[in-house]
Specification:
single chain, 472 residues, mainly alpha, disordered N terminus
């Protein structure tokens, strides 16, 4: 334990020095006068190059204010989609005025706008199908049966820590990190009544596991899905991140495990819950739908969302057969579509068009020059993960994808890893953390998470080193 403590103190000192140097270097590049100057528009450019104009700066301020409301959602109750959609409209209105003043044709403006529309439509349809399947599985009691089983097994606190963490890790590679964290978080809260220490550590463990588990799967996180659909990596390329993702989870989990209380939760009178008719078939159809999406991309060279839509049609037909075969069953597929996370889908719309508008004005090229040309791809990609601890990883990754970077597969996998797991550094860095703060009734808070940030950061850098050793 003494050796571990000494190593921990040395690591914290090293981490502080590295972060300070990165901050100084990054700030220095942002303050370079030549980067702040507006570029002269050229028809060969993909952006207006008008970052130094009054309107251009105004659009950045609009986005910053809108994102401030997003980050304050927990306190204001204002859904995160509302401010970013408004910001997207204002940003593109100013972009259109700037384009007209620069002599850009309406056709060129529409081409830039429709590029963002195509990107959003492809990702939205993919996510909508995935969310519909998750809702269908939930309605058939798939997740309730899993939760009930974990509660009735009467694990000790230390056993429950590993069981919930490992289940969350693998579940988030199929479902999103929010669904996984909320599902298993309900188990931690149910069996941890009267032991706030276990609940706090257990929920931090779930946040790390959910984010790490989604990083190695093409459909485990929105950021990995974006990289896959953008064509920077093939479906099976992402699985090289499995070992780094395991390291990202295991390293902080070992430290948290040592702080867990001994003993066993009080026995509960939880009744067994059973699967509804067709539950396993729906799970099987979801797996086949993912396979169909992969085949459409790999063999037909069509966007994956087309394969997902085919899978949705099969689910619709199977839902119809459930109602016919089982009397008393009411399986309404359109109710599952209605219950999708529309706030998340509309938030994604606002982010895509806000970041796309800023990119069209020229700000992504500005940031790209400061980070990737100035710091180099490795340092910049590590920094992307740190930024995603404060700013949601969706706009960060979308910005990276629209910088038109020339990176090899190793670097694209690095930024996928860092953007996916960097949100674990703070409780507000991922949807899983924000949701669990609301669900835990103040037993899991921003500051209770910050206490474990140093060991989570240790896992973050350990996963980067592992990625280098395994895949470099």
């Amino acid at each position: 334990m003494i050796v571990l403590r000494q190593f921990y103190l040395v690591f914290i000192h090293f981490l502080g020095v590295v972060l300070l140097r990165l901050l100084l270097i990054f700030s220095g590049f942002l303050l370079l006068p030549q980067l702040a100057m507006a570029e002269v528009y050229d028809e060969d450019f993909t952006n207006l190059g008008l970052t130094g104009t009054e309107r251009g700066i105004y659009t950045v301020l609009i986005f910053v204010v809108a994102y401030g409301f997003v980050m304050a959602e927990e306190f204001t109750g204002l859904r995160k989609s509302k401010p970013v959609i408004l910001a997207a409209g204002i940003i593109w209105a100013h972009a259109a005025i700037l384009a007209a003043e620069a002599g850009v044709s309406v056709e060129q403006l529409h081409e830039a706008f429709e590029y963002n529309l195509t990107e959003y439509a492809a990702l939205m349809l993919f996510l909508l199908v995935a969310m519909t399947y998750i809702n269908a599985m939930a309605e058939r009691n798939v997740f309730e049966v899993l939760r009930s089983w974990m509660i009735r097994k009467e694990f000790s606190y230390k056993q429950l820590f590993w069981v919930t963490g490992i289940i969350t890790f693998f579940l988030s590679s199929v479902a999103d990190n929010l669904t996984s964290a909320l599902l298993v978080g309900a188990v931690v809260l149910a069996v941890g009544k009267g032991n706030d220490k276990f609940v706090t550590i257990g929920l931090v463990n779930l946040v790390v596991a959910a984010n790490a588990g989604g990083a190695f799967s093409p459909f485990g996180d929105i950021t990995t899905l974006m990289v896959w659909q953008a064509g920077y990596a093939e479906f099976f390329d992402f699985f090289v991140l499995f070992v780094p993702s395991v390291v990202n989870y295991i390293v902080p989990a070992v430290f948290m495990y040592m702080a867990l209380p001994d003993g066993q939760p009080t026995a509960t009178d939880e009744e067994a819950i059973y699967l509804k008719p067709g539950a396993m078939q729906v799970c099987g159809l979801f797996a086949l739908t993912i396979v169909t999406a992969v085949c459409f991309k790999q063999f037909l060279h069509l966007p994956p969302f087309m394969g997902m839509m085919v899978g949705l049609s099969v689910l619709m037909i199977y839902g119809f057969s459930i109602n016919k075969l089982y009397r008393g069953e009411s399986f309404d597929i359109f109710r599952k579509v209605r219950d999708a996370e529309w706030d998340t889908l509309f938030f994604f719309f606002g982010v895509v068009f806000s970041v796309g508008g800023l990119g069209y004005i020229g700000y992504l090229e500005l940031v790209s020059g400061a980070m990737y040309d100035g710091l180099g791809p490795t340092t910049a990609n590590i920094l992307v993960g740190m930024i995603s601890a404060v700013v949601d990883n969706i706009p960060v990754m979308f910005a990276v994808l629209n910088m038109n970077l020339e990176m090899d597969l190793y670097q694209w996998m690095l930024v996928t890893l860092t953007a996916g797991t960097g949100g674990s550094l703070l409780s507000v860095g991922s949807a899983a953390g924000v949701a669990l703060m609301g669900q835990s009734n103040h037993r899991y808070t921003f500051f209770s998470h910050v206490k474990w940030t140093p060991v989570i950061a240790l896992g973050y850098f350990a996963s980067i080193v592992t990625h280098y050793l395994v895949n470099g």
